[in-house]
Design brief:
This protein is 52% helix and 9% strand. It has 360 residues and is of the alpha/beta class. The chain has a five-stranded mixed β-sheet, with helices on one face.
Protein backbone atom coordinates (compact mmCIF):
# COMPACT_ATOMS: atom_id res chain seq x y z
CA UNK A 1 0.00 0.00 0.00
CA UNK A 2 3.00 2.33 -0.19
CA UNK A 3 1.92 3.70 -3.54
CA UNK A 4 -1.44 4.77 -2.09
CA UNK A 5 -0.16 6.19 1.20
CA UNK A 6 -0.54 3.27 3.58
CA UNK A 7 -1.07 4.06 7.26
CA UNK A 8 1.14 7.15 7.05
CA UNK A 9 -1.62 9.09 5.35
CA UNK A 10 -4.13 7.89 7.96
CA UNK A 11 -1.82 8.81 10.86
CA UNK A 12 -1.15 12.28 9.49
CA UNK A 13 -4.89 12.81 9.16
CA UNK A 14 -5.51 11.63 12.73
CA UNK A 15 -2.79 13.98 14.02
CA UNK A 16 -4.92 16.93 12.96
CA UNK A 17 -7.61 15.90 15.45
CA UNK A 18 -5.42 16.78 18.47
CA UNK A 19 -5.01 20.49 19.23
CA UNK A 20 -3.08 19.96 22.47
CA UNK A 21 -2.68 22.34 25.40
CA UNK A 22 -2.12 25.35 23.14
CA UNK A 23 -5.50 24.91 21.50
CA UNK A 24 -7.36 23.90 24.68
CA UNK A 25 -9.00 27.27 25.38
CA UNK A 26 -10.10 27.85 21.78
CA UNK A 27 -11.51 24.33 21.61
CA UNK A 28 -13.38 24.76 24.90
CA UNK A 29 -14.91 28.03 23.69
CA UNK A 30 -15.92 26.37 20.43
CA UNK A 31 -17.63 23.52 22.32
CA UNK A 32 -19.57 26.04 24.43
CA UNK A 33 -20.64 27.85 21.27
CA UNK A 34 -21.80 24.57 19.71
CA UNK A 35 -23.92 23.74 22.75
CA UNK A 36 -25.47 27.20 22.65
CA UNK A 37 -26.15 26.89 18.91
CA UNK A 38 -28.18 23.70 19.40
CA UNK A 39 -30.41 25.23 22.07
CA UNK A 40 -33.97 26.42 21.47
CA UNK A 41 -37.03 27.36 23.54
CA UNK A 42 -37.23 23.65 24.39
CA UNK A 43 -34.10 24.06 26.56
CA UNK A 44 -35.54 26.39 29.26
CA UNK A 45 -38.88 24.60 28.97
CA UNK A 46 -37.19 21.27 29.67
CA UNK A 47 -35.33 22.73 32.67
CA UNK A 48 -38.60 24.09 34.07
CA UNK A 49 -40.39 20.78 33.60
CA UNK A 50 -37.48 18.92 35.24
CA UNK A 51 -37.62 21.26 38.25
CA UNK A 52 -41.35 20.69 38.61
CA UNK A 53 -41.32 16.91 38.21
CA UNK A 54 -38.05 15.73 39.69
CA UNK A 55 -39.04 16.22 43.35
CA UNK A 56 -42.47 14.60 43.18
CA UNK A 57 -44.70 14.87 46.23
CA UNK A 58 -47.83 16.92 46.72
CA UNK A 59 -48.83 19.60 44.23
CA UNK A 60 -51.11 21.72 46.40
CA UNK A 61 -50.88 25.15 44.75
CA UNK A 62 -51.32 26.91 48.08
CA UNK A 63 -48.44 25.05 49.75
CA UNK A 64 -45.08 26.67 50.42
CA UNK A 65 -43.21 23.71 48.88
CA UNK A 66 -45.03 24.08 45.56
CA UNK A 67 -44.30 27.79 45.39
CA UNK A 68 -40.66 27.00 46.19
CA UNK A 69 -40.44 24.54 43.26
CA UNK A 70 -42.02 27.00 40.86
CA UNK A 71 -39.65 29.77 41.87
CA UNK A 72 -36.65 27.47 41.40
CA UNK A 73 -38.01 26.39 38.00
CA UNK A 74 -38.41 29.98 36.79
CA UNK A 75 -34.98 31.03 38.03
CA UNK A 76 -33.18 28.01 36.53
CA UNK A 77 -35.00 28.12 33.19
CA UNK A 78 -34.32 31.86 32.83
CA UNK A 79 -30.61 31.30 33.39
CA UNK A 80 -30.59 28.46 30.86
CA UNK A 81 -32.49 30.58 28.32
CA UNK A 82 -30.15 33.55 28.49
CA UNK A 83 -26.79 32.02 29.35
CA UNK A 84 -27.02 28.46 27.93
CA UNK A 85 -27.57 25.14 29.66
CA UNK A 86 -23.81 24.68 30.03
CA UNK A 87 -23.80 27.50 32.62
CA UNK A 88 -26.29 25.55 34.74
CA UNK A 89 -24.13 22.45 34.35
CA UNK A 90 -21.06 24.35 35.59
CA UNK A 91 -22.97 25.71 38.59
CA UNK A 92 -24.27 22.24 39.45
CA UNK A 93 -20.81 20.72 39.10
CA UNK A 94 -19.21 23.31 41.37
CA UNK A 95 -21.88 22.76 44.03
CA UNK A 96 -21.52 18.97 43.77
CA UNK A 97 -17.75 19.22 44.20
CA UNK A 98 -18.13 21.53 47.17
CA UNK A 99 -20.54 19.10 48.81
CA UNK A 100 -18.23 16.19 48.07
CA UNK A 101 -15.29 17.97 49.73
CA UNK A 102 -17.47 18.76 52.71
CA UNK A 103 -18.34 15.08 53.09
CA UNK A 104 -14.68 14.09 52.87
CA UNK A 105 -13.91 16.53 55.68
CA UNK A 106 -16.73 15.11 57.81
CA UNK A 107 -18.95 18.19 57.48
CA UNK A 108 -21.99 16.27 56.32
CA UNK A 109 -25.47 17.64 55.89
CA UNK A 110 -27.45 14.64 57.16
CA UNK A 111 -30.51 15.66 55.15
CA UNK A 112 -28.60 15.30 51.85
CA UNK A 113 -25.98 12.58 52.41
CA UNK A 114 -27.29 10.41 49.55
CA UNK A 115 -24.67 8.22 47.86
CA UNK A 116 -21.35 10.09 48.18
CA UNK A 117 -19.26 7.47 46.35
CA UNK A 118 -21.54 7.48 43.29
CA UNK A 119 -21.59 11.25 43.02
CA UNK A 120 -17.84 11.47 43.63
CA UNK A 121 -17.20 9.06 40.74
CA UNK A 122 -19.58 11.06 38.55
CA UNK A 123 -17.77 14.29 39.47
CA UNK A 124 -14.44 12.64 38.62
CA UNK A 125 -15.83 11.61 35.23
CA UNK A 126 -17.07 15.15 34.59
CA UNK A 127 -13.71 16.68 35.58
CA UNK A 128 -11.84 14.25 33.30
CA UNK A 129 -14.11 15.11 30.37
CA UNK A 130 -13.75 18.83 31.07
CA UNK A 131 -9.96 18.62 30.97
CA UNK A 132 -9.48 16.20 28.09
CA UNK A 133 -12.27 16.93 25.59
CA UNK A 134 -10.90 20.36 24.51
CA UNK A 135 -7.55 18.74 23.71
CA UNK A 136 -9.16 17.52 20.49
CA UNK A 137 -10.57 19.37 17.53
CA UNK A 138 -13.99 20.70 18.61
CA UNK A 139 -16.26 18.36 16.70
CA UNK A 140 -19.74 18.71 18.26
CA UNK A 141 -20.11 14.95 18.86
CA UNK A 142 -17.10 14.88 21.22
CA UNK A 143 -18.98 16.90 23.85
CA UNK A 144 -21.63 14.22 24.36
CA UNK A 145 -19.86 12.31 27.23
CA UNK A 146 -19.29 15.62 29.05
CA UNK A 147 -22.91 16.58 28.50
CA UNK A 148 -24.23 13.25 29.81
CA UNK A 149 -22.20 13.62 33.02
CA UNK A 150 -23.39 17.22 33.28
CA UNK A 151 -27.03 16.19 32.91
CA UNK A 152 -26.67 13.77 35.83
CA UNK A 153 -24.97 16.36 38.03
CA UNK A 154 -27.57 18.95 37.15
CA UNK A 155 -30.37 16.50 37.83
CA UNK A 156 -28.99 15.81 41.30
CA UNK A 157 -28.77 19.51 42.09
CA UNK A 158 -32.24 20.25 40.74
CA UNK A 159 -33.59 17.49 42.99
CA UNK A 160 -31.92 19.12 45.97
CA UNK A 161 -33.02 22.65 45.11
CA UNK A 162 -36.64 21.64 44.61
CA UNK A 163 -37.04 19.01 47.36
CA UNK A 164 -37.53 21.46 50.25
CA UNK A 165 -40.80 20.78 52.04
CA UNK A 166 -42.92 23.21 54.04
CA UNK A 167 -41.18 22.46 57.34
CA UNK A 168 -37.71 23.05 55.87
CA UNK A 169 -38.80 26.35 54.31
CA UNK A 170 -40.32 27.56 57.56
CA UNK A 171 -37.27 26.56 59.61
CA UNK A 172 -34.81 28.10 57.18
CA UNK A 173 -36.79 31.35 57.01
CA UNK A 174 -37.08 31.54 60.80
CA UNK A 175 -33.43 30.84 61.53
CA UNK A 176 -31.90 33.00 58.82
CA UNK A 177 -31.58 36.75 58.85
CA UNK A 178 -30.96 36.79 55.08
CA UNK A 179 -34.54 35.69 54.30
CA UNK A 180 -33.75 33.14 51.56
CA UNK A 181 -37.39 33.13 50.46
CA UNK A 182 -37.08 36.72 49.30
CA UNK A 183 -33.79 35.99 47.57
CA UNK A 184 -35.38 33.07 45.73
CA UNK A 185 -38.31 35.28 44.70
CA UNK A 186 -35.84 37.87 43.41
CA UNK A 187 -33.93 35.17 41.50
CA UNK A 188 -37.20 33.96 39.96
CA UNK A 189 -38.10 37.50 38.90
CA UNK A 190 -34.69 37.90 37.26
CA UNK A 191 -35.13 34.51 35.59
CA UNK A 192 -38.48 35.54 34.15
CA UNK A 193 -36.97 38.74 32.73
CA UNK A 194 -34.05 36.77 31.24
CA UNK A 195 -36.48 34.36 29.57
CA UNK A 196 -38.54 37.19 28.09
CA UNK A 197 -35.37 38.75 26.72
CA UNK A 198 -33.85 35.49 25.44
CA UNK A 199 -36.84 34.30 23.41
CA UNK A 200 -36.77 37.20 20.87
CA UNK A 201 -32.99 37.68 20.92
CA UNK A 202 -31.62 34.11 20.99
CA UNK A 203 -34.37 31.84 19.75
CA UNK A 204 -36.68 33.74 17.40
CA UNK A 205 -34.40 33.48 14.36
CA UNK A 206 -33.18 29.90 14.79
CA UNK A 207 -36.36 27.94 15.49
CA UNK A 208 -35.73 24.50 16.94
CA UNK A 209 -32.47 23.03 15.56
CA UNK A 210 -33.26 19.54 16.85
CA UNK A 211 -36.31 19.40 14.56
CA UNK A 212 -34.51 20.55 11.42
CA UNK A 213 -34.42 17.95 8.60
CA UNK A 214 -31.27 15.87 8.26
CA UNK A 215 -31.93 14.42 4.81
CA UNK A 216 -29.74 16.67 2.62
CA UNK A 217 -27.25 13.90 1.75
CA UNK A 218 -30.07 11.42 1.13
CA UNK A 219 -31.66 13.84 -1.36
CA UNK A 220 -28.26 14.32 -2.99
CA UNK A 221 -27.90 10.55 -3.36
CA UNK A 222 -31.25 10.41 -5.17
CA UNK A 223 -30.13 13.16 -7.54
CA UNK A 224 -26.87 11.35 -8.30
CA UNK A 225 -28.68 8.08 -8.96
CA UNK A 226 -31.01 9.89 -11.35
CA UNK A 227 -28.09 11.48 -13.23
CA UNK A 228 -26.17 8.21 -13.49
CA UNK A 229 -29.28 6.41 -14.70
CA UNK A 230 -29.75 9.05 -17.40
CA UNK A 231 -26.20 8.59 -18.71
CA UNK A 232 -26.10 4.79 -18.28
CA UNK A 233 -29.66 3.46 -18.38
CA UNK A 234 -28.76 -0.23 -18.72
CA UNK A 235 -26.27 -2.70 -17.34
CA UNK A 236 -23.96 -2.54 -14.36
CA UNK A 237 -22.33 0.75 -13.42
CA UNK A 238 -19.60 1.63 -10.92
CA UNK A 239 -19.95 4.79 -8.82
CA UNK A 240 -16.76 5.69 -7.01
CA UNK A 241 -17.20 8.01 -3.99
CA UNK A 242 -14.14 9.97 -2.91
CA UNK A 243 -13.89 11.32 0.64
CA UNK A 244 -17.62 11.37 1.49
CA UNK A 245 -18.61 8.44 3.77
CA UNK A 246 -22.12 9.80 4.35
CA UNK A 247 -22.78 9.98 0.62
CA UNK A 248 -21.34 6.49 0.12
CA UNK A 249 -23.71 5.16 2.79
CA UNK A 250 -26.77 6.85 1.29
CA UNK A 251 -25.91 5.76 -2.25
CA UNK A 252 -25.43 2.18 -1.09
CA UNK A 253 -28.87 2.18 0.55
CA UNK A 254 -30.84 4.09 -2.09
CA UNK A 255 -29.50 2.85 -5.43
CA UNK A 256 -30.62 -0.17 -7.49
CA UNK A 257 -28.53 -3.31 -7.52
CA UNK A 258 -26.97 -2.62 -10.90
CA UNK A 259 -25.22 0.48 -9.49
CA UNK A 260 -22.11 -0.77 -7.72
CA UNK A 261 -20.54 1.48 -5.08
CA UNK A 262 -16.80 1.71 -4.54
CA UNK A 263 -14.94 3.89 -2.00
CA UNK A 264 -12.19 5.82 -3.74
CA UNK A 265 -8.93 7.08 -2.31
CA UNK A 266 -8.02 9.14 -5.35
CA UNK A 267 -8.63 9.66 -9.03
CA UNK A 268 -6.81 6.64 -10.45
CA UNK A 269 -9.17 3.95 -11.74
CA UNK A 270 -6.62 1.54 -13.23
CA UNK A 271 -2.89 1.06 -12.83
CA UNK A 272 -0.56 1.58 -15.80
CA UNK A 273 -0.78 -1.35 -18.19
CA UNK A 274 -4.15 -2.58 -16.93
CA UNK A 275 -7.18 -2.90 -19.19
CA UNK A 276 -9.99 -0.44 -18.46
CA UNK A 277 -13.22 -1.81 -17.04
CA UNK A 278 -15.89 -2.80 -19.52
CA UNK A 279 -18.66 -1.00 -17.62
CA UNK A 280 -19.15 2.75 -17.13
CA UNK A 281 -17.35 4.34 -14.17
CA UNK A 282 -18.59 7.48 -12.46
CA UNK A 283 -16.97 9.53 -9.70
CA UNK A 284 -18.72 11.55 -6.97
CA UNK A 285 -16.52 14.16 -5.29
CA UNK A 286 -17.40 16.47 -2.41
CA UNK A 287 -15.63 19.20 -0.42
CA UNK A 288 -13.87 16.80 1.95
CA UNK A 289 -11.83 15.01 -0.72
CA UNK A 290 -10.21 18.26 -1.89
CA UNK A 291 -10.26 19.94 1.55
CA UNK A 292 -12.49 22.70 0.22
CA UNK A 293 -10.31 23.58 -2.77
CA UNK A 294 -11.85 23.78 -6.25
CA UNK A 295 -10.95 20.83 -8.44
CA UNK A 296 -8.00 21.30 -10.78
CA UNK A 297 -8.85 20.78 -14.47
CA UNK A 298 -5.58 18.93 -15.03
CA UNK A 299 -6.28 16.50 -12.22
CA UNK A 300 -9.56 15.50 -13.84
CA UNK A 301 -8.28 15.19 -17.39
CA UNK A 302 -9.41 11.55 -17.50
CA UNK A 303 -12.95 12.53 -16.49
CA UNK A 304 -15.86 14.31 -18.10
CA UNK A 305 -17.74 16.64 -15.80
CA UNK A 306 -21.46 15.90 -15.81
CA UNK A 307 -23.05 18.06 -13.14
CA UNK A 308 -22.56 19.96 -9.86
CA UNK A 309 -24.83 20.01 -6.83
CA UNK A 310 -25.19 22.46 -3.95
CA UNK A 311 -26.18 20.98 -0.60
CA UNK A 312 -27.03 22.86 2.60
CA UNK A 313 -26.88 20.24 5.36
CA UNK A 314 -28.26 20.45 8.87
CA UNK A 315 -26.61 22.34 11.71
CA UNK A 316 -24.93 19.22 13.06
CA UNK A 317 -23.05 18.72 9.79
CA UNK A 318 -22.23 22.41 9.29
CA UNK A 319 -20.58 22.69 12.70
CA UNK A 320 -18.25 19.86 11.70
CA UNK A 321 -16.94 21.96 8.81
CA UNK A 322 -14.02 24.41 9.09
CA UNK A 323 -15.24 27.85 10.27
CA UNK A 324 -14.58 29.43 6.87
CA UNK A 325 -16.96 26.98 5.15
CA UNK A 326 -19.79 26.66 7.69
CA UNK A 327 -22.01 29.30 6.10
CA UNK A 328 -21.36 28.13 2.54
CA UNK A 329 -23.19 25.34 0.72
CA UNK A 330 -21.34 22.08 0.21
CA UNK A 331 -20.50 21.57 -3.48
CA UNK A 332 -20.51 18.08 -4.95
CA UNK A 333 -19.45 17.11 -8.48
CA UNK A 334 -20.32 14.12 -10.63
CA UNK A 335 -17.82 12.94 -13.26
CA UNK A 336 -17.71 10.11 -15.77
CA UNK A 337 -14.38 8.38 -16.30
CA UNK A 338 -13.03 8.06 -19.81
CA UNK A 339 -10.16 5.69 -20.63
CA UNK A 340 -6.82 7.41 -21.26
CA UNK A 341 -5.83 7.98 -24.87
CA UNK A 342 -4.38 4.84 -26.46
CA UNK A 343 -6.08 2.45 -24.07
CA UNK A 344 -8.92 0.45 -25.61
CA UNK A 345 -11.97 -0.58 -23.67
CA UNK A 346 -13.07 -4.11 -24.43
CA UNK A 347 -16.66 -5.13 -24.08
CA UNK A 348 -17.34 -8.31 -22.06
CA UNK A 349 -18.20 -10.21 -25.28
CA UNK A 350 -14.93 -9.12 -26.93
CA UNK A 351 -12.96 -10.07 -23.84
CA UNK A 352 -14.50 -13.57 -23.86
CA UNK A 353 -13.76 -14.02 -27.59
CA UNK A 354 -10.17 -12.90 -27.07
CA UNK A 355 -9.79 -15.34 -24.19
CA UNK A 356 -11.20 -18.16 -26.30
CA UNK A 357 -8.77 -17.46 -29.17
CA UNK A 358 -5.84 -17.37 -26.73
CA UNK A 359 -6.88 -20.74 -25.26
CA UNK A 360 -7.08 -22.32 -28.69
Amino acid sequence: MRDTGGYTAVASNHARFIVGVRGWLDSAIAHAQHLAAFESPLTPFGVAVACCLIAGGSWNVSSEATRHRLLVAIAASGLAAMMSLSVLVLVAAVMALREGLAQLRGQRDEAHVGRPLAWTMLAAWWIAMTLTTPLYHPYPRLILPWLVAGWLLLGQQLARWTATDVTDVANVTKNSHAQPGRRLALAAAIGAVLMLVAIPTRFASRGIPSLQPRTAIARLADQLVSQVTTHAPDGNVVIRVWGEPALFFQLSNRSPRRLLMQPAGGLAVIRPGEQPPAIPVFLAVGPHALDGRPPSPDAFRDYRHLDSFEVIPGLQVRLNQPPARRDQPMIFHLYRWKPPTGVSRETPQAARRSSTRTTR
